[in-house]
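User: Please run a holo structure prediction.
Assistant: Happy to. Please share the sequence and the ligand.
User: Here you go; the ligand is thiamine diphosphate.
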Amino acid sequence: MAGFLHRRDVVKTLLARRNADTLVVAGLGSSAWDVTAAGNDDRNFCLIGAMGLTVPIGLGLAEAQHDKRILVITGDGDMLMSLGALATVAQVRPRNFAIIVLDNECFGETGGQPTHTAGVADLAAIARGAGIEDTGEIREQGEIDALIADVYDAPGPVFRTVKIAYETLEDFKPPLDGAYAKDRFRVALLGAKAAVGGA
Ligand SMILES: Cc1ncc(C[n+]2csc(CCOP(=O)(O)OP(=O)(O)O)c2C)c(N)n1
């Protein structure tokens, strides 16, 4: 069943609790705009066009940065494209990793074509079946406080589907130059010497 929560509100509330140890990997398109609308933070790494890579990149980051909390925020279309990565997440069991899927049951960025979550696919159940123990689905505003507590504090990996409305919203673009975006993130995380530049 379609959701009613508003994606911008959910992401803004979620990221209001972030601190210097919070690293955010945002899925392409709408999720990247949501995360940027909440603050064009240097500790955001927003994918542009790279569909299906949000969870794999977030997992690598979680493994490389055990002292940070890694939040993946992405769409159902992106998640459906890399379901196998959930089995790897479950196997690796990063304690500092949370995946939040903003599920509008469609490919919103490309015009709202229905995804399989509009049909019978249940992403939280798939994540559970992949072996991630802490999974769940959020539909109500009253569940957001618990979502935030779990995403930041529960032992990972944490997986949450948030059922949201399909909305067409203003784009808030993060840096679109890939080399710059990568350097910005590396410098924020590792210091000025981490910038290597180049296209
Ligand atoms: C491999 C690949 N196929 C298709 C696209 C085109 N594309 C860009 S965004 C998008 C929809 C993403 O849907 P979802 O992850 O559910 O995000 P939403 O915009 O609905 O929040 C598609 C199909 C792409 N970038 N890469």
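Residues 27-31, 49, 51, 75-78, 102, 104, 106-110, 115 surround thiamine diphosphate (CB under 6 Å).
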